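User: Run a structure prediction on this.
Assistant: Running it now.
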Amino acid sequence: MQLRIRLTVALAAIGLITSLAVAVAVRGALVAEERTRFDGRVNSAVGDARRALERHAAADQGALDRACANDPIVERALVAARARADADRLVDNDPDLPRVELMASQARAAVAAGGNVVAGALGADELWIVDARDGFVLAAPKGERAQIGLRSPGQLKLATDRSQAVRRGDAAALVFRCAREERGEAVLVTELRRLDRAFFDRLAEEVRGFRVLFEGDVPRPDEVVRSLVVATAALDESAKDGKARPLELKVAVSEAAVTSAIARIDQVIVLATLGAILFGAAVGFAVARRMVSPLGALASEARKVAEGTAVPVEVRGRDELADLAVAFNSMLEDLEATRRRLHAAERVAAWREAARRIAHEIKNPLAPIRASIETLRRLRAREDPAFDGYFDEATTTVLQEVRRVASIVDEFSRYARIAPPRPTDVDPVDVGKHVVGLFAAEAQSKPGDAQPRLALSASPCGSIRADREQLVQVLVNLVKNALEATRPKDGKSGGHVRVEVEPAGPEAVRFVVRDDGPGVDPTMIARLFEPYATTKQGGTGLGLAIAQRIAVEHGGAIAYARAPQGGAVFRVILPRRGPQEPPPPDKMTPRPRGSESAGEEPPAA
């Protein structure tokens, strides 16, 4: 990109950033104001809905109170209640009993027939009239007429309760009550107004700006929903303690107006921002034209710096551009010196890391070699008959480990890194047995121990594709660390290490090394697999890093967990398919083997 374009874009960007900062602040304030106003409207709509509900309730209660005081049907219900009370006080052979019972029966019949008339006059969905003395039903809705003439504790409770609304199953209704009392007898009148869709549609017509959603209704995308909760009691006599879940009404208010206002705000802000960008671009283009010519030569040499072929530029004049040219030439000299120092430092660091890694990896095979030789010496010294039998096993172990040391030295001296895996068909159980056998002498238990210090638990796994030497290297590192963590201290017996080999599903195999030692220091868990991260005195911190790299290059993973009873658990999971096949070696530089590479000079890192 040319300097002229960059300056133009830079100044346009300054205008854009400034405009955006102002626009964001202004938009935030305006949108917040619109939202606040809209929230006020929503809360007002919910309040209007509640107040309209209360007005309807007050009107219905007033109409019911007037009916209790003046309606002849309620008067006849009171006559029926008095007649029932008189009949209950008379004995069976009293001559006035037939007359009183006839009066009560006639009054009840009149009330039962006129209850629906009163309900229609009040506009009630249900109207109940009960005797206040025992809940005897005198009038009931058409669907409940079978209850007339029966005592109903539920209706008596409903008539004397103070709840504003009741539930019967999923339906809810407002409840209004009144009582008519005379000469010690009283009747209770209960009116129910169903809270259904028709009722709330009438409510929304009276108070515009909202609608009530029922179960199954979905709000429109431009609506905001708020809850209007009405406490209810249970109308069903089977409900426990008369409790019912509150009636939660969803009041939906359209936000089309506030969305339109925010869209207008955004439109104005976009136009203002585009104007600021165009203005900044015009100013940037004018400034760039005055500066681009004298900087052309310096820009050309600057491009050569990126290519590594730059040469000092000619210094002309004494202005700021000349100072820039002098600084550029000085920078080239410093850059060349820095490159030389960095190259040398990289070579030193690379071989220092290689030396540390090879020293760490060579120390691992030395332990079984030393243990085998020491055992041979002890058996030979006491002329133990087992010497000959152990000799082949020990020498085989020593030769195998010597070959592994030679392989490690060969790889480090050739590439200064761990060689890529060379997979073959490997039996995981055989690898586990081999590694446990390497440390068997070192991990011998003291007499009286209930279990050996090092044990193997293996399940048939089949074969996997893996580099056997690298897989042994991983397990040797883990087992060696576990044995060191459980080494006997202060006269106490050592801990125990268990190596487990088992299938991990149809496509993978799991190696587990667990011990009952102190576990990993919590401060080191986050850096456990980093190179050179260690708390062991004399340790290089490469063992787990190398193990992780080998596991990853095989397409698997290694993880640490703390055992529930304490100690460390390392799990290595490897896929059966193994790693990808490495590329063929370079025919011009064949891989050295054995002692042929011992005298080579290490290649530059």
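The CA atoms of residues 423 and 466 lie 4 Å apart.
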